[in-house]
Amino acid sequence: MTAVAAPLTTPRQGRRQGRLRRLFSRSTVNIILVVIGLLWLLPSFGLLVTSFRPAQDFFSAGWWQAIAHPFTLTLDNYRHILQTGGIGDAILTTALITVPATLLVVLIASLAAYGLVFLRWRGRDWVLVLIVALMVVPLQMALIPVASLYRSVGLFNSIPGVVLFHVAFGLPFAIFLMRNFYTGIPKDLLEAARIDGANEWMMFRRIVLPLGKPALASLAIFEFLWVWNDLLVSLVFLSGSSHVPITVAILGQLRQFGSNIDLISTASFVSMIIPLGVFFAFQRYFVRGVLAGAVK
Amino acid sequence: MARIEFQHVDKRYSGAEGLAVNDLNLDVKDGEFLVLVGPSGCGKTTALRCLAGLEDISSGDILIGDRVVNDLPPKDRDIAMVFQSYALYPHMSLFENMAFSIRMRKAPKAEVESKVREAAQILGLEKLLDRKPGELSGGQRQRVALGRAIVRDPAAFLMDEPLSNLDAKLRVQTRAEIARLHQRLGTTIVYVTHDQVEAMTMGDRICVMRDGLLQQVGTPQELYEHPVNLFVAGFIGSPAMNFLTGRVAHDGAAAALALDGLQITLSGRAAAAARTCGDGQTLTIGMRPEHLDVATAHTSNAVRVPVLVDVVEFLGNDALLHATVGGTEVVALVPVARGVAVGDRVELAIADDLVHTFDPQTDHTLGNTAAA
């Protein structure tokens, strides 16, 4: 005779166990995320607090004591850097580099990706291979040749020169990202538009561009952050200029005084808050854009 | 409205060995509903895409109206296409979707408005015009795709398997809707499908294709009654035609088909076809399931096939018998009242003028079955 073993748990218990397991695994993930978040957030918060402290406090106590007694927070540092430190000018210079570089990269990449995905032409696949290959070329390799080239054409120590360099090195990844996103757009849509009477430009502007919005937004954020935070390129191509971006300006402050941490932290926070604002503004698209293209 | 003509059209994809469309000659009359049908890869969609201008043809001519359109871009061919995937612009409202083509032609605002409203009214979409395609059901999306085509008021509609993404019930409804639309607008329609039921129910004429080659063009009835070859005979009709292949045995004036261990006496049309074959030559006979019935003592002028029933499918009024004869499966649609059960040995009979005969060497129809 065969006996059937009674189930050890009732269906209801099983469901409860499953729910508990899910809850546990979800809370584990949440805890890990919170820890990672704190690790990233804490230094930024420290920077924020430091930027509001008088210089002498920095050497006597850590920033975490600032909130405790005695309460000595001040706006002097901000007043100082905005009035004297040339930080205002540096932020403007950074914006003059970052905004055109970002716009150009987004514009050129979206057009180039359209050509790589929706137009049929000889050698298209080889051009794509070349673009992917360019992604692995380190930027440092080009600094000296481009610097001497810039000197001969008069772009050295000029903002357009830096913009051009950022655009050139931003494009391979940008084209690759946009191309991958565009391949997810059904070809039928373009064919329908073609039959409906749209030319290539209309198909790009009316169909592909609106559908590519999430990818464009992610690309714009990526590019904006990279160019805004860049130090190396500006240091090489703009160090002799009277207008330097904020990253170079902060470095200059550090070199000049060595110990003016109050001003440096204030300038750093200002330099950080602008891209952060851009990120939050486009955050909604960013998440969608990064996922888009991964799963069709 | 326009007549459409394919004249010796070839299409070869670069890198592909064979021709996707091979010497296609086809004349679609003005206002006709022509269905291109065939199994996947038969070239029907390629032919339609060539007609739309989405693919270049390798040789031959395509005419819409009296114009050769070989080198015209899709937008100048005065056609509208309904895609299998509907291809609705997901970021635009239904109104914008339907207005897109006439806006591209720079139609005045009032005309855009009136044409879109009119198309929406024909298809019962008036209340949905502000919605986006993502908010619609499959059937509604299908109607928008049709609406987009109607708004253009083209010389011809091209439809590429427009019903294949719908469920069975909706498919039947939309089938009737498209047929009604055709009656109302009277525009030439070229319709591609792999579903022979769709082809039979919708088309004024059907064009059957296989491996890039046109097999037969004709009305649904012509194709059903007079298929030109084994492929068309097997493809048109549901359930598919039964085929039995054996050797012809002449016995004086009578003719028979010798299968594994049994002889089927032929009469009428089948016997006439058998007489054109030499003794021992192979012959295929075709019998539609709905023409087969269980033989009774009163059955006359019929070809009789003794079978062993192994499956009976109850369909309500009728039953579908799956039986075997000489190792070949035969399907018959008989009234339930015959009371056939699994395991029965019965004799199936078919009126001898309904038997089709084919030459298994060439696949062509033999005898007096006239090609359409």
UniProtKB/TrEMBL annotation, chain A:
<keyword id="KW-0812">Transmembrane</keyword>
<comment type="similarity">
    <text>Belongs to the binding-protein-dependent transport system permease family.</text>
</comment>
<dbReference type="GO" id="GO:0005886">
    <property type="term" value="C:plasma membrane"/>
</dbReference>
<dbReference type="Pfam" id="PF00528">
    <property type="entry name" value="BPD_transp_1"/>
</dbReference>
<feature type="domain" description="ABC transmembrane type-1">
    <location>
        <begin position="91"/>
        <end position="282"/>
    </location>
</feature>
<keyword id="KW-0472">Membrane</keyword>
<feature type="transmembrane region" description="Helical">
    <location>
        <begin position="126"/>
        <end position="150"/>
    </location>
</feature>
<dbReference type="GO" id="GO:0055085">
    <property type="term" value="P:transmembrane transport"/>
</dbReference>
<keyword id="KW-1133">Transmembrane helix</keyword>
<keyword id="KW-0813">Transport</keyword>
<feature type="transmembrane region" description="Helical">
    <location>
        <begin position="231"/>
        <end position="251"/>
    </location>
</feature>
<feature type="transmembrane region" description="Helical">
    <location>
        <begin position="263"/>
        <end position="282"/>
    </location>
</feature>
<dbReference type="InterPro" id="IPR000515">
    <property type="entry name" value="MetI-like"/>
</dbReference>
<feature type="transmembrane region" description="Helical">
    <location>
        <begin position="162"/>
        <end position="182"/>
    </location>
</feature>
<protein>
    <submittedName>
        <fullName>Carbohydrate ABC transporter permease</fullName>
    </submittedName>
</protein>
<keyword id="KW-1003">Cell membrane</keyword>
<feature type="transmembrane region" description="Helical">
    <location>
        <begin position="90"/>
        <end position="119"/>
    </location>
</feature>
<feature type="transmembrane region" description="Helical">
    <location>
        <begin position="23"/>
        <end position="42"/>
    </location>
</feature>
<dbReference type="InterPro" id="IPR035906">
    <property type="entry name" value="MetI-like_sf"/>
</dbReference>
TrEMBL record, chain B:
<dbReference type="InterPro" id="IPR012340">
    <property type="entry name" value="NA-bd_OB-fold"/>
</dbReference>
<protein>
    <submittedName>
        <fullName>Sn-glycerol-3-phosphate ABC transporter ATP-binding protein UgpC</fullName>
    </submittedName>
</protein>
<keyword id="KW-0547">Nucleotide-binding</keyword>
<dbReference type="InterPro" id="IPR003593">
    <property type="entry name" value="AAA+_ATPase"/>
</dbReference>
<dbReference type="GO" id="GO:0140359">
    <property type="term" value="F:ABC-type transporter activity"/>
</dbReference>
<dbReference type="InterPro" id="IPR047641">
    <property type="entry name" value="ABC_transpr_MalK/UgpC-like"/>
</dbReference>
<dbReference type="Pfam" id="PF17912">
    <property type="entry name" value="OB_MalK"/>
</dbReference>
<dbReference type="GO" id="GO:0005524">
    <property type="term" value="F:ATP binding"/>
</dbReference>
<keyword id="KW-0813">Transport</keyword>
<dbReference type="InterPro" id="IPR027417">
    <property type="entry name" value="P-loop_NTPase"/>
</dbReference>
<dbReference type="InterPro" id="IPR003439">
    <property type="entry name" value="ABC_transporter-like_ATP-bd"/>
</dbReference>
<dbReference type="GO" id="GO:0016887">
    <property type="term" value="F:ATP hydrolysis activity"/>
</dbReference>
<dbReference type="GO" id="GO:0008643">
    <property type="term" value="P:carbohydrate transport"/>
</dbReference>
<dbReference type="InterPro" id="IPR015855">
    <property type="entry name" value="ABC_transpr_MalK-like"/>
</dbReference>
<dbReference type="InterPro" id="IPR017871">
    <property type="entry name" value="ABC_transporter-like_CS"/>
</dbReference>
<dbReference type="InterPro" id="IPR008995">
    <property type="entry name" value="Mo/tungstate-bd_C_term_dom"/>
</dbReference>
<feature type="domain" description="ABC transporter">
    <location>
        <begin position="4"/>
        <end position="236"/>
    </location>
</feature>
<dbReference type="GO" id="GO:0055052">
    <property type="term" value="C:ATP-binding cassette (ABC) transporter complex, substrate-binding subunit-containing"/>
</dbReference>
<dbReference type="InterPro" id="IPR040582">
    <property type="entry name" value="OB_MalK-like"/>
</dbReference>
<dbReference type="Pfam" id="PF00005">
    <property type="entry name" value="ABC_tran"/>
</dbReference>
<keyword id="KW-0067">ATP-binding</keyword>
